[in-house]
Amino acid sequence: MKEENVTTVARNSKLLPLSKIVSTSKFQKISYHSDNIGSLALEDENISYTSTGTLIDFLTRMIVLNDNNALGISLRGLAEMANKQQKAEYLYKAAMFKTLTKDTEIDELNDDVFNLGLDICAWEQAIRGGHYVSPQAYPNETTIIHYKIMLKRAKAYLEKIGNIIRTGYVLATKNGLISGDGDYLSPDTLIDFKVSKFTTMQPNWVRQLFLYRVLLRDELVSPDQIKKLMIYNPRRDEGFLLDLTQINPNILDFVKTQAEKRSLY
Questions:
Q1: Cβ(189)–Cβ(228) below 8 Å
Q2: With a threshold of 0.70, does the pTM exceed it?
Q3: What residues have CB less than 8 Å from 265, skipping those under 6 apart?
Q4: CA-based nearest residue to 221, from 263, 198, 190
């Protein structure tokens, strides 16, 4: 079998039917009300939703959490796919990004921060998608306003959660042929960011969270320590929460067995 990303596997409803896991309605919806702005319209922005999601996660790690490891995935893409000139350009832009964001409040961030962020994240998307595509556009004024709001919401949310002990954690099957990386871990909660316009929990998100839980590989947090699964959406300032202690533990075994079987074919 060729290598697959967990996100791709999570789209496979035949492999992981929700009737054998949990329905979307089992997740508790939470509104955080960190501001009075409401949902941010995707249609008013000029950057694709996939690039926006990658960028907001990267900016959250770098600016809100001061996590230099946020560069790790893009550096992998760079190492595997870039030529000498592209590597030099990346290193220059990464250094510029750090200079422009050091000790800078979110509202004061220069537009160049978001442009450089997109350039960096293009290599993160490359490693996940299998090929590199340079940004075709950069954020307009409205998009940057939205990005700053989402970053402030992410900051408020993570302050409420507290004690984030891992960002960019690794997950994989035993043979490594299905793998991926998740967003955030607290000592007992697995958290994934979704910069989405959806108002309800999505089936793919359910499967993805369960795959993250059963395939988690981390020296700080074992899968058994994770008691809660959570989605946070900074576009809507909302979350979805599932308490794993309230479900049949055989569900976790089913998801893991299905993932391991899939990795063999």
A1: yes
A2: yes
A3: 1
A4: 190
Tokens 């999570």, residue? 10
Cβ within 8 Å of residue 209, ≥6 positions away: 190, 192, 229, 230, 231, 242
The two structure tokens encoding residue 194 = 């979704």
Helix, strand, coil percent values for the chain (each to nearest 5): 50, 15, 35
Amino acid at residue number 163: N
CA proximity to 180, closest of 153, 130, 216: 216
- Residue 50: other Cβ atoms inside 10 A: 12
Q: What is the token pair recorded at 59?
A: 């900016």
Strands 28-31 and 238-243: antiparallel
Name which of 201, 183, 180, 200 is nearest 192 in CA terms: 183
Query: Amino acid identity of 119?
Result: D
* pLDDT tens, residue order, the chain (265 aa): 578 999 999 999 999 999 999 999 999 999 999 999 999 999 999 999 999 999 999 999 999 999 988 999 999 999 999 999 999 999 999 999 999 999 999 999 999 999 999 999 999 999 888 899 999 999 999 999 999 999 999 999 999 998 899 998 999 999 999 999 999 999 999 999 999 999 999 999 999 999 999 999 998 899 999 999 999 999 999 999 999 999 999 999 999 999 999 999 8
Q: Any alpha helices (H) in 29-140, and if so which ranges?
A: 49-59, 72-81, 84-101, 111-129
Question: Hey, is 231 helix, strand or coil?
Answer: strand
